[in-house]
Amino acid sequence: MEEWRPWQPPADPGQAARESCTMQSIISGVVGGGAGMALGAVLAPFNSSVGVESEHLPIKEQFRRGLREMGTQSRSWGKNLAVIGAVFQCSECFVEKSRGRSDRWNAVGGGCITGGVLAINAGPQGMAMGCAGFAVFSYAIDALGFGHMGE
């Protein structure tokens, strides 16, 4: 078994900034927000009620309503995925640095914390279910090899 060693910060200040949990969390939030906005724009037509209620309107007004709906969906998806990305990355980073090693159990710990935080309004049982669900999802993603794409 490997001996536990606390995480040592890198000597290079630039690398230290990139490896800080705060910076990683900010980057993940920004990337998650951008991906969420794109996903919201793509998925907006599939769950929109604009077409049903605006059949009798001129095409220009239908187009405006469609764009408005797409903007609303984009903002909603962007905000949600930004929060998920930032919370997950921050919690996984803290778990990794406290454990002193990088493996798939960091993703499970980060997933559990993220699921619990996201379900905080659902009470203790909801938080437990969120923790378990997100931990299993994180483990599956990591086990399939998607957790370490850049390494």
From TrEMBL:
Bilayer topology term: Multi-pass membrane protein
GO biological process: protein insertion into mitochondrial inner membrane
Compartments, record wording: Mitochondrion inner membrane
Entry keywords, A to Z: Membrane, Mitochondrion, Mitochondrion inner membrane, Protein transport, Translocation, Transmembrane, Transmembrane helix, Transport
Main location class: mitochondrion
Gene Ontology molecular functions: mitochondrion targeting sequence binding; protein transmembrane transporter activity
Annotated PANTHER family: MITOCHONDRIAL IMPORT INNER MEMBRANE TRANSLOCASE SUBUNIT TIM22
Family (UniProt): Belongs to the Tim17/Tim22/Tim23 family.
Oligomeric form and interacting partners: Component of the TIM22 complex.
Function: Essential core component of the TIM22 complex, a complex that mediates the import and insertion of multi-pass transmembrane proteins into the mitochondrial inner membrane. In the TIM22 complex, it constitutes the voltage-activated and signal-gated channel. Forms a twin-pore translocase that uses the membrane potential as external driving force in 2 voltage-dependent steps.
Protein's recorded name: Mitochondrial import inner membrane translocase subunit TIM22
Source organism per UniProt: Prymnesium parvum (Toxic golden alga)
